[in-house]
Amino acid sequence: ADGILIDAKAGGVTIDTAGDIAKAVEITTNGGTKETIEVTNTLGNTAAAILVDAKAGGVTVSANNAVNGQVTVTANGNKANAISLTTNGGTSETIQITNTKGTGASAIDLTASAGSIAAAAPKGSVAVTADGNAVGAISLATNGGTTETIAITNTKGTSASAIGLTATAGGVAIAGNGDIANAISLTTNKG
Question: b or e along 27-51 (b: 16 or more beta carbons within 10 Å of the residue's beta carbon)?
Fold first, then answer.
């Protein structure tokens, strides 16, 4: 049953407050473990069909329950940029994805079930850093089939260290275990 029903058949509904206070507008439930809050746009098909906009501040989404607390973002639209995280505020802006206490091997998991994952920095760098004191602290592995490859390519760098492998305190091991010709091949072809 609708305890409170606000219905505008042909117009809009505006909730406005001028109070300069915390929680100037607050929507709260406190009725039981099955309660939910839903914001639904049934027929709107624009990019901003539901818009959450903080003109001068930030937006925080928090699920604090230790057992059931989750934040799920799902897009069912079959289109490019179905989910997009974008900043456009200035040269010091950043995007951070942080797992504070997770200790599992997939504490942060990026999975493309049917496609690929691309990381690109057209005007900057891509840095992968692991501070864990563990075997396989950084691992590049494929496990898809006999034609799979791993390619490390520097397209335009011309220095002697265009691709550098450095072990500051240990060694570098290169092993080819396949019973094939040229199991290990180091080739130059420019002079």
Answer: eeeeeeeeeeeeeeeeeeeeeeeee
